[in-house]
Amino acid sequence: MKISLCTITFRHHLLSLKDIALWAQANDFQGIELWGAHARNLAKHSLYDAEWLAGFGLSVPMVSDYLPTDANEAAVRDGAQHLCRIARHWNARKIRTFAGNRASSEVSSDERDAIASRLRTMCDIAASHGLLLLVETHPNTLADSWSSTARLIELVDHASFRINFDALHVWEAGDDPVAAHQALRSHVGHYHLKNVRSRADLRVFDPANVYAAAGRREGMEPLFDGMMDYNHFLSRLLDEPGVEASLEWFGNDCFNVLGRDRRLLRGLSERHVEPLRVGAL
């Protein structure tokens, strides 16, 4: 499994990409998933590109952004074209977006078809650049449950369409992440890994809270300390070739948390170290 960190972790930090790359290199990460805002702004500087990052032994597996699914055809095409050009600057093979901004239960059949049509257009554009378009499993979207995600895959019906499987959000929906993953596996292109203290704390991942500099961080837990059982989920993935995942940490003390999670993932992969629970380190 190829493990990346996400630059969105450092959205409220005053750090350079070089600072992040040096730390990622020293802590056995293979990639850096670029947040769309970071990818766009960094690409304006001639120093930063895929070749520069490769000097640290790192690559960009995915650029994660927010393409419009309720805009007109021209805006959809312009947004997708621009994001694809940015992704190619970093030699990323995947771009990520969301399937709307309302719960699947609140979306009419006609609205669902319209969103799927726009995603299909984005896929056409992504394919023309040699890229994949990924939609993330996430609350308040058309990928907010196993069944709705499967339906969306059928509707988009495109060879360049994939799912960014956020295991915690699948669990949040009340689905079994292992069973959902088995059902969707052939369409999964990337994984986001994070954890939470309890179901009562899930609102801590609401976008408005995550993006707020003064937002609540209590309830965000390191990967193997939270409520979801990642030992069970990851045991089926770690030995599969070509699997790419990102540790998506939004909380405080990011270097210590990410470093520890990476060590425990490596131990799990090597079958030498059983990941430890809270208080073991």
TrEMBL record:
Highest taxon above the source species: Bacteria
Keyword Oxidoreductase: no
The protein, known as: Sugar phosphate isomerase/epimerase family protein
Ranges where the Xylose isomerase-like TIM barrel domain occurs: 23-252
UniProt keyword Zinc present: no
Source organism per UniProt: Flaviflagellibacter deserti
Example GO molecular function: isomerase activity
This protein's UniProt keywords: Isomerase
Pfam families tied to this protein: AP_endonuc_2
The organism's taxonomic lineage, starting at the top: Bacteria, Pseudomonadati, Pseudomonadota, Alphaproteobacteria, Hyphomicrobiales
